[in-house]
Amino acid sequence: MSRTNFGFTESTVVCCLLVCNPDFQMRANLAIGFQNGRLPSNKQIDVALSSLTNHSKLRSPNQDLSPEGKVILEDFRTVVEEAKRLILVKNHDQVFQEFVWNTTQLGAKGGPQMSAPGVPVSKEAANRDAEQARAGFRTLGQLIITNG
Predict the structure, then answer these.
(1) Distance separating alpha carbons of residues 129 and 117, to the nearest angstrom
(2) Residue 54, domain extent
(3) Biggest CA-to-CA distance, the chain
(4) Is residue 116 assigned to a domain?
(5) CA-to-CA distance for 112 and 44, rounded, in angstroms?
(6) Which is higher by pLDDT, 123 or 110?
(7) 84 found inside a domain
(8) pLDDT digits (tens, 9 = 90+) for 125-145
(9) Are residue 17 and residue 61 in the same domain, yes or no?
(10) How far apart are the C-alpha atoms of 21 and 40, rounded to whole Å?
(11) Are 44 and 94 within 8 A, CB to CB?
């Protein structure tokens, strides 16, 4: 068992952080979800982006900040608010999260099964197919974002 400087095990420290710090708990849950192929729900994204844009450092920037720095901060807030709006409006039914989940489950035990082709595939052909799939996913992502 590894120990911290205070003689507590790591699991004890993590449990205390989870109980005492909801923000840590939210981050831990998101990290676990990402590891399991899940994305945050629209509600979780809304809460996270709203708390970011409402953070005191963005709402009331340091007075010593240059005028250009203040403009950059305001532009950043605008980008985050527009990203939130984009997610909530264009992905209102959480299709993107479902798509990612379903594609990560292909071939997994209990998930949708794929049959392999009955012919051998060369490494070059597999790499070419993988690149075409990546390009297709990029196009799909662009269509999701730009079409409403």
Answers:
(1) 13
(2) 39-107
(3) 67
(4) no
(5) 27
(6) 123
(7) yes
(8) 888 888 888 888 777 777 777
(9) no
(10) 19
(11) no
